[in-house]
Design goal:
The complex is a heterodimer.
Chain A: H1 2-25, H2 39-42, E1 45-46, E2 54-59, H3 66-81, E3 85-89, H4 96-108, E4 113-116, H5 125-133, E5 138-141, E6 153-156, H6 159-174, E7 180-186, H7 192-205, E8 211-218, H8 223-236, E9 242-245, H9 248-261, E10 267-272, H10 275-283, E11 288-293, H11 298-310, E12 314-315, E13 326-328, E14 333-335, H12 339-342
Parallel strand pairs in A: 1-12, 2-3, 2-4, 4-5, 5-6, 6-13, 7-8, 7-9, 9-10, 10-11
Antiparallel strand pairs in A: 11-14
Helix pairs in contact in A: 3-11, 6-7, 8-9
Chain B: H1 23-52, H2 54-57, H3 60-85, H4 93-103, H5 107-110, H6 113-137, H7 143-162, E1 167-168, H8 172-176, H9 189-207, H10 209-219, H11 221-226, H12 231-257, E2 259-260, H13 268-278, H14 290-309, H15 314-338
Antiparallel strand pairs in B: 1-2
The chains are: A alpha/beta, B mainly alpha.
């Protein structure tokens, strides 16, 4: 998916570069003034200093769970950090038609850049295309549009990487244990992201021939379903060494079931990065030893990218004159050793 | 007393299989056959579970687990059965459970401890039921629409209260209810509540005037009115009752999951309706069985349990659940027509 995106994205990126060049023409520091310096030295990269005023339109879904809430918060806080940024925020909606209407309003208002976290990526592709055709570059956050033409830049999480990193963490912990058994508590099964996480987890475990995945059940990202499915998994598997749970919200329920069953004979790795999970990892008092991030900070990055785009600048620290066309956030493993650093990003 | 004419309610022109003598006169006979059929299904399931997973299925812990998991939805189903018997429907049960569970687990409520949480859960449930009942009885709204509106607004309010966050319960006395240490003679307190609600529900439906009125309203509302029953008030009470059950269920869920979340009670309305229908309650009203409903819940929970123990995935579980609903309703039709 990413490969396809980046190739077509490149083509499109080229078009955006020319657009960017026109925009940069308005500013005083033109990179093409005949110097032979490396791009990295002369490129106008976005930094913390106030630049040209930019109006960013932000459209997200209804924040009906902790992670989405954190995403909206991150975006707002980041925008407040820059004095020259004006945010036009729509009321979050899970209704596709309503979100399309909201984005069309933002297009009519002629905001400079749009940041869109679609309720449904496929269904909102058309409105993304419409914005792009109207000359408003779109930063597509997390849930990807159907067509790379519908966005200038995609920023999102790495579901496959979550599974992979969870498997590697568990694999390293259990690598000296013969015939180790692992179970998986997945999220909503009919979501593509759940399949990707499971695929990554399975692929990662293949590196450790001594480990076998003995059971997998899918919960629904809710505490209630996490408790229920975990209770059954514990009943089914009287003896296993590690558990990977896709989502820290349902993990609250899973931990409850583990506590109710009085089990502590395995290690658990979570997913997403909830504050409660970070606190449990830091306290190190239960089975939860680590969690794999699906960082809500990607929304803050999206605002940074939108700002750079609006000001016709590149990203500081990268050599290119313009922002990338795709940014896939790393699914870092947070355990006791590095949890303090991530504590502030934990969501409730 | 009543004329043996059951007006078609679903608009298909097909009368409900209520022809013949009034429902209450043959209820017992039918109920027995139906209960036996359901017990048979349950026995087959236990057999399948025992054969496929002899160690983990036939185990005291597993029995406790299945009954505990059945408790929350079971209590909701008892309330739902009453509503359906009266010819109504309550689509808002899941949303009411969600709203009750989040309202009862806010930081402010938790300060009042066990009593505060229990009180809030029940009052919110009854309050929502009251609104449903008033809209239906005195606002003249169709139950489907009134409770659909409640579904939407209760979920919305639950979301507004939580802001999408998971409200973790920190009151130990509530959490203890779902811990092994508090089991009474090996029976989890949640299951005891479920059993009590079932017994009370059965007594009320089968042994009280209130129960007979409910059946009468569901069988033929006009005839019931002519016979002197205050149909509107009866309906109001029934939605109150359903709300009360949702409040109790919400409290059980809070204890079980240790938290309140606006996504709680997801699709409970469908699970409760399905269990009631399987249990032999007519969707058109006029007939219903608490025991059947409870067996319906147990059948669903046992199936889920067997699937989980055998590590079967969501797709298979959902297909099987659909197939079982169809099979049960077909069997029900046969028994209804042969009797």
């Amino acid at each position: 998916m990413t490969k396809l995106t980046s190739r077509r994205g490149l083509l499109f990126g080229a078009a955006a570069v020319s657009a960017g060049a026109v925009l940069t023409g308005c500013t005083s520091n033109d990179p093409d003034d005949g110097d032979d310096k490396a791009a990295a030295d002369t490129q106008p990269a976005a930094d913390d200093k106030p630049g040209k005023p930019v109006t960013i339109g932000y459209a997200g879904p209804q924040a009906d769970h902790g992670w989405l809430n954190a995403v909206n918060d991150q975006a707002k806080k980041r925008a407040e950090k820059y004095s020259e940024i004006t945010m036009e925020i729509t009321e979050g909606s899970n209704d596709t038609a309503q979100q399309i209407g909201q984005i069309e309003t933002l297009i009519n208002k002629k905001v400079d850049v749009l940041v869109i976290l679609p309720a449904d990526g496929k269904a909102l592709t058309q409105v993304g295309l419409k914005a792009m055709r109207a000359g408003i570059p779109v930063i597509n956050l997390d849930r990807i549009f159907n067509s790379p033409q519908a966005y200038r830049c995609w920023v999102g999480g790495d579901n496959y990487g979550m599974g992979l990193n969870a498997a590697h963490y568990i694999g390293e912990k259990l690598k000296d244990k013969p015939n180790a058994k692992v179970i998986e508590l997945a999220g909503i099964d009919n979501l593509e992201l759940t399949q990707q996480r499971t695929q990554g987890f399975d692929d990662g475990l293949k590196n450790y021939p001594n480990i076998k995945k003995v059971a997998r059940q899918a919960a629904e990202f809710t505490v209630e379903s996490g408790q229920s499915k975990m209770a059954q998994l514990l009943q089914a598997q009287s003896d296993f060494d590690a558990l990977w749970n896709h989502d820290d919200d349902q993990g609250v329920g899973a931990l409850r079931a583990i506590e109710q069953a009085g089990r502590d004979d395995f290690l658990m790795v979570g997913g997403a990065g909830a504050l409660s999970a970070f606190q449990a990892i830091k306290a190190d008092s239960g089975v939860l030893k680590a969690t794999v991030l699906y960082p809500p900070t990607m929304a803050a990055s999206a605002i940074d990218l939108a700002r750079a785009l609006g000001q016709g600048k590149g990203v500081s620290g990268l050599a290119e004159f313009e922002i990338p066309s795709t940014v896939t956030c790393y699914s870092a493993v947070v355990d006791k050793d590095n949890v303090d650093q991530y504590m502030s990003t934990g969501f409730k | 007393m009543t004329q043996h004419v059951s007006p078609p309610r679903d608009g298909t022109g097909k009368a409900a299989p209520l022809d013949g003598p009034p429902a209450w006169r043959v209820r017992l006979g039918r109920a027995d056959v139906r209960t036996l059929t359901l017990l048979g299904v349950l026995a087959v399931l236990v057999l399948i579970g025992g054969i496929t997973q002899p160690d983990s299925f036939l185990d005291t812990h597993n029995l406790q687990l299945v009954l505990t998991q059945a408790s929350v939805i079971g209590v909701v189903t008892v309330g739902m059965t009453f509503v359906i018997v009266s010819g109504g429907i309550d689509l808002s049960v899941g949303a009411i459970v969600a709203l009750s569970s989040v309202w009862a687990t806010t930081v402010a409520t938790q300060e009042y401890g066990f009593a505060g949480i229990l009180f809030t859960a029940i009052v919110v449930g009854v309050g929502c039921g009251l609104v449903n009942g008033l809209l239906i009885s005195f606002g003249g709204m169709v139950p489907f629409i009134a409770t659909l509106a409640m579904l939407a607004s209760a979920r919305g309010l639950a979301l507004q209260i939580t802001d999408g966050r998971t409200q973790v319960v920190t009151v130990p006395s509530v959490l203890d209810l779902a811990e092994r240490d508090s089991y009474v003679l090996g029976i989890p307190p949640l299951v005891l509540v479920f059993a009590a609600v079932t017994v009370v529900g059965w007594l009320v439906l089968n042994r009280t005037t209130f129960g007979r009125r409910t059946v009468a309203v569901g069988g033929n509302a006009e005839a019931a009115r002519l016979a002197g029953i205050d149909v509107r008030r009866q309906r109001l009470y029934l939605y109150l009752l359903s709300g009360l059950c949702c409040g109790i269920a919400a409290f059980l869920l809070i204890a079980l999951a240790g938290s309140g979340q606006n996504t709680n009670g997801n699709l409970y309305e469908l699970d409760a309706i399905a269990a009631a229908i399987i249990g032999g309650t007519l969707l058109t009203g006029g007939r219903g069985h608490i025991i059947g409903s409870v067996l319906g819940v147990l059948i669903f929970t046992t199936i889920t349990n067997i699937f989980a123990l055998n590590n079967l995935q969501t797709d298979v579980q959902q297909i099987a659940k659909g197939a079982i609903i169809v099979a049960a309703v077909l069997v029900q039709r046969r028994t209804a027509s042969t009797h």
